[in-house]
Specification:
By secondary structure, the protein is α/β, with parallel strands linked by helices. It has 20 helices and nine strands. It has helices spanning 37-51, 53-56, 68-72, 96-107, 125-128, 145-157, 170-179, 205-216, 220-228, 231-244, 252-259, 261-274, 280-302, 308-316, 320-323, 328-334, 339-346, 351-363, 368-378, 382-401, and strands at residues 2-11, 16-25, 62-66, 84-88, 112-114, 133-137, 161-165, 183-184, 193-197.
């Protein structure tokens, strides 16, 4: 089982300077064998988007291992340099495209670290002028003690912070201090601590394809509609946009417009690469959530004073205790959905709360007496209620049918 961990990196005074976030095979305590670095990075970024890097690092910089192709595709543009640093993990020859991508990210304020640096690695030397930190493996490097001291002195004279990694004993820690390293990382100082397993909020397989089609057509309304039909993607988008922006957005359309088509496409790529697809059991929960959302929207259209957009989101996240593992009101606060939706979850006597109660009432029954009562409340015919139920079920079925494995 793969887990996402963070490990503290300490300064010379023994204080936490920053963190590294990494994937581990829980049973072996090391990077999972055979895992594509691009997928690993996408899984970590997906987690950072959901949790928020400022929370992961307790306000300190969090370094993420990133392969070159991720930078060249501009996918790191989605994150803020205030809380996220980049540790380049790359074995292939450094090219101009990579250097240009690094130069652009540095100009935006990102901090770079180069892992397992050595002056004998000629291909790595162009990175030296771009990076802020250099990591050297205390146990496995090509230098004797005198050479290592000289290398550290040269790097520090160039303004680089030098990190000793893989410190496992007190003796190794003392040696690293004597060598003059600036920062220290290893299980002697701090073991990687579990953040979560890699099961981030899932999404429907069909959503990614439909998102790309809408983005290619530059169809904001179509893109909004696609995202609205997926609980997981709606959660990711709202969480990400509200993390990135000082303004808070409570509808999917506002979030898409604020993020823009290009960045929404990048977010879709990262999420797709993580391959956290909804499984059969989750798809059935999605179907229920979509049914509730659609029916709540239709009720709001006919119920005096109803807000379609708010009613839809109300229904969509009403099963979040089962889908996302959190109370619906807490999710609404986290996603800045607005006080009206929060109150609806906590107090069914509110306008939207009453609509949600009617939706729940009709979810498991189409009893003629119940339908007639709901029809009188909404001031419509029982036939129209049956039509709304059928339309909501067909919509939920059609969206989720393509995503069942």
């Amino acid at each position: 089982m793969m887990v996402i961990c963070k490990q503290a990196i300490f300064d010379r005074e023994g204080k936490v300077a920053f963190y590294e976030v990494l994937l581990q095979d829980r049973s072996k305590g090391k990077y999972p064998e055979g895992l594509d670095p691009l997928k690993a990075t996408s899984m970590v970024i997906d987690m950072l988007v959901e949790i928020g890097p400022e929370r992961v690092g307790n306000g300190k910089l969090v370094f993420v291992n990133v392969p070159a192709i991720f930078l060249e595709a501009s996918l790191f543009d989605l994150l803020s340099p205030e809380y996220v640093g980049i540790e380049l993990v790359e074995n292939r020859r450094i090219n101009n495209e990579l250097l240009d991508a690094i130069r652009e990210l540095v100009s935006r304020g990102f901090k770079f670290s180069v892992d397992d640096f050595g002056f004998e690695k000629v291909d790595y030397l162009p990175l030296l002028g771009k990076c802020h930190f250099v990591k050297i493996n205390l146990k496995d490097n090509p230098y004797n003690d005198i050479e290592l001291t000289e290398v550290i002195d040269i790097l520090k004279s160039l303004g680089k912070g030098v990190i000793a990694k893989n410190i496992e004993t007190e003796e190794e820690y003392r040696r690293a201090l004597d060598f003059g390293f600036d920062y220290f990382q290893g299980i002697y100082l701090s073991k990687p601590s579990l953040l979560k397993d890699t099961r981030t909020i899932a999404f429907l397989k069909s959503t990614i394809i439909r998102m790309y089609n809408a983005i290619r057509s530059r169809d904001v309304e179509g893109l909004t509609e696609v995202i609205e039909k997926d609980v997981g993607m709606s959660y990711k988008l709202l969480k990400f946009v509200n993390y990135m922006s000082k303004n808070k957005f409570s509808t999917i359309r506002e979030a898409v417009i604020n993020l823009g088509l290009e960045n929404t496409a990048k977010l879709a790529v990262v999420v797709a690469l993580s391959e956290v697809f909804a499984e059969e059991q989750e798809v059935q929960l999605w179907k229920r959530a979509l049914f509730r959302a659609s029916l709540a929207e239709k009720m709001a259209e006919v119920y005096s004073g109803g807000s379609k957009d708010k009613a839809y989101l109300l229904g969509l996240f009403s099963l979040s205790n089962e889908v996302l593992g959190e109370n619906p009101a807490d999710i609404a606060r986290k996603l800045s959905l607005g006080e009206e939706i929060i109150q609806a979850y906590e107090n069914r006597l509110t306008h939207l709360g009453f609509i949600l109660s009617l939706v729940e009432l009709l979810e498991d029954t189409e009893d003629e007496v119940v339908v007639s009562k709901v029809a009188r409340i909404l001031n419509i015919t029982p036939e129209r209620v049956y039509e709304m139920l059928l339309e909501a079920r067909e919509e939920a079925d059609s969206i989720t049918a393509q995503s069942v494995a």
